[in-house]
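Field log, afternoon session.

UNIT: design team B
ACTIVITY: writing a sequence onto a fixed backbone
BACKBONE:
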């Protein structure tokens, strides 16, 4: 009798026969003697079962009908098992494929099994005890994201040092349409930036983004209720989707993205292995055509590429993108100072808030372009971000009546305030403000001069300013002394200035007069 086969080999013969293969072609495909195939075909036809019924029998049923349980030759089987032992140790290595190892195996042995038998024997030898459910994925429902374990590198032009960079992978599970991008790190801003680029790549937004329990995405991991990073939540809110972290220790939740990572090693890492890059932009520019080629590869069973499946099925289920891109927010805490401003530590400057919040603790939300101040989760102030160190950004509506008065101070303001009291008062005010480097100092002195009208009247103040201008002695203190000593009302004023101060009577303020030297 011809060599006997085990039930697995028999099922392969029956399957190929039902597919229309001839006995000779079955023997060639399975590396089995044609005579052995002919013998078993006679056994099949002589049994009480149809070919489909034989195929539906389990292993025990076939063993009952065809009792022998062996392979064609023991040496051939032993060689295969020996190869499996070495191959299985490399299962976790990036870029591992069964096809690569089958090609190696078939080159090493004289009588190699066919690829189908090769895989069947492997599955039988390394069958998984714990089964896993095949997850069905609705189109447009989820986007899976992850980072590859292995890093790519760019070269620092200045030092020649190899700088490791992360590789971000995203996949829509229904069509398996994949996005790959290199980024500086896995930090929050880089993760959100890559997620945003992925959504722009797809041209739409899924209902949920499924992330691994990355530190930049999840503040506190949990199998049932993970706590999402605040910035990542803001990102999801902006794009009208939700963040759904994969369950810890549940690899089936992210099996497709893990598979996409392994395919990235084969389709992207390997072609780039001998290339040198000096920037992320150069690296991503080279990744783009490799990714395009990968998404255009045909699935053998579906007879369509990832891109075709995405375009024909999944794209229409995605929600539209928002008009604007997401602006990453940062957060600070600050107490409102007595002057009605909060101190913004990143830029070391100040922003006004309504004066009724003085003394309150507030939260500051800021982006590259705006600064928002919140109290009890309600926004109380919004300002364009001012990068100037030490600057005060003010909304006049925030100020009390007193603060508003001071905020209006300017040279024009003081000229208008001085005008009702005479032209010489205006001239003195202009000269004082122009004579100082720091405007606020001049404003205070000018206000002091104007306020003298309350004690002496506008006419006397104007005369005193006139005499101070003629003597080139314009200052608040000097004008005050002129009024206090009634020098604005005497013709001796100019003689006293020219002949020095001893001519001033002793009963008058000698201390004040000595200032006129």
């Amino acid at each position: 009798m011809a060599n006997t086969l085990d039930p697995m080999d028999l099922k392969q013969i029956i399957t190929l026969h039902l597919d229309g293969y001839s006995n000779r072609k079955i023997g060639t495909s399975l590396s089995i003697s044609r005579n052995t195939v002919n013998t078993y075909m006679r056994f099949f036809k002589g049994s009480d079962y149809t070919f489909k019924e034989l195929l539906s029998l389990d292993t025990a049923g076939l063993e009952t009908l065809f009792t022998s349980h062996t392979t064609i030759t023991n040496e051939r089987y032993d060689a295969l098992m020996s190869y499996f032992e070495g191959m299985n140790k490399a299962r976790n290595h990036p870029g591992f494929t069964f096809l690569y190892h089958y090609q190696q195996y078939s080159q090493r042995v004289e009588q190699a099994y066919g690829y189908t038998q090769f895989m069947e024997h492997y599955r039988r030898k390394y069958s998984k005890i714990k089964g896993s459910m095949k997850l069905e994925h609705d189109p447009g429902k989820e986007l899976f994201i992850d980072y590859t374990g292995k890093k790519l590198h760019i070269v620092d032009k200045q030092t020649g040092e190899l700088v490791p960079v992360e590789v971000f992978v995203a996949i829509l599970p229904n069509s398996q349409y994949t996005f790959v991008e290199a980024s500086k790190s896995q930090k929050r801003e880089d993760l959100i930036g890559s997620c945003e680029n992925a959504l722009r790549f797809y041209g739409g937004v899924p209902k949920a983004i499924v992330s691994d329990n990355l530190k930049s995405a999840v503040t506190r991991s949990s199998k049932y209720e993970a706590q999402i990073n605040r910035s990542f939540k803001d990102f999801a809110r902006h794009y009208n989707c939700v963040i759904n972290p994969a369950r810890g220790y549940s690899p089936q939740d992210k099996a497709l993205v893990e598979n996409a990572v392994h395919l990235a090693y084969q389709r992207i890492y390997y072609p780039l292995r001998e290339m040198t890059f000096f920037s992320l932009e150069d690296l991503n520019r080279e990744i783009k055509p490799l990714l395009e080629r990968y998404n255009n590869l045909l699935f053998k069973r579906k007879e369509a590429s990832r891109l075709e499946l995405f375009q024909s099925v999944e794209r229409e289920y995605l929600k539209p993108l928002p008009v604007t891109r997401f602006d990453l927010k940062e957060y600070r805490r600050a107490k409102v100072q007595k002057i009605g401003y909060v101190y913004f530590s990143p830029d070391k400057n100040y922003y006004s808030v309504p004066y009724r919040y003085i003394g309150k603790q507030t939260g500051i939300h800021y982006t590259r372009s705006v600064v928002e101040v919140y109290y009890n989760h309600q926004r109380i102030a919004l300002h364009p971000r001012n990068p100037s160190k030490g600057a005060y950004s003010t909304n006049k509506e925030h100020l009390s009546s007193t603060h508003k008065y001071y905020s209006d101070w300017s040279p024009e303001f003081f000229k208008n305030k001085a005008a009702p009291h005479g032209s010489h008062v205006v001239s003195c005010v202009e000269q004082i403000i122009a004579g100082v480097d720091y405007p606020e100092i001049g404003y205070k002195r000018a206000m002091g001069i104007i306020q003298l009208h309350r004690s002496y009247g506008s006419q006397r103040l104007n005369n005193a300013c006139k005499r101070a201008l003629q003597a080139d002695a314009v200052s608040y203190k000097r004008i005050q002394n002129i009024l206090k000593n009634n020098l604005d009302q005497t013709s001796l004023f100019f003689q006293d200035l020219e002949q020095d101060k001893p001519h001033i009577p002793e009963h008058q303020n000698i201390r004040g007069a000595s200032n006129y030297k």
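LOG NOTE: Residues 68-73, 129-134, 221-225, 492-517 have pLDDT under 50 and may be disordered.
NEXT ACTIVITY: expression trials, pending approval
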